User: Fold this.
Amino acid sequence: MKKRILIVDDEPPIRKLFARTIGTENYAIRAAASGVEALALLKNDPADLVLLDLNMPELDGADTLAEIRKIDQAVPVFIITSFKDAFFDKLKILRDAGIQFEVINKPVEKEHLRELVESVLYGPGDQAAGGEQCK
Amino acid sequence: MQVIRLYMAGKSPVWMNAFDRLQKYLVAGQGPRLSFETIDVLDEPRAAIRDQVFATPTIVRAFPPEARLIGNIQDTARVARALGLT
Assistant:
């Protein structure tokens, strides 16, 4: 059975790029255009990994993460952000509340993203030097 | 002194335990030439950028030639090999 990945981003080109980069042949990839849509999907069908954009309208990534943790305490959630992002303050509040998450600094190299996903879901492989970027 | 850094978002007990196991494994094998640091990217994003860390968790061997392992860092022997320390 393929591992299930949920990509949450309000920008359709980004969702498509991440899905194409990770590879639909190896993973069961679903996409959500908002935090609300992501929560609805997760309530009906859990994921093995969530890639969650931080900066989204209405329910942003931090608020969505807090709601995800009410549904699923264990699923690895990677917040896609910038290490200069002003929204870090909100992530610190979640961190200080004991909510577990990881972060990805964008833009991310496509090869790095593939390796990260594989490492989290199947264990570490050899690390690569770099390549094309995802926004 | 050669530095091994663990970059995390917060202080995940799983990653802290994995890093602690790595530290014991490496110190037992190599003596006191290594030092170990944990860095929270939410508090020190510039350090992450300096070490070209793009995601958490990442373990970086900061001395040349640089090496790193991203994602699942729980297999101590695998991490040590990836960092070129065995």
Remarks:
- The mean pLDDT of chain B is 90.
- Residues 2-82 of chain B form a domain with the Glutaredoxin fold (CATH 3.40.30.10).
- Chain B touches chain A at residues 9-10, 12, 40-43, 45-46, 48-49, 53-57, 67-73, 75, 78-79, 82 (CB under 8 Å).
- Helices of chain B lie at 13-30, 45-50, 76-82.
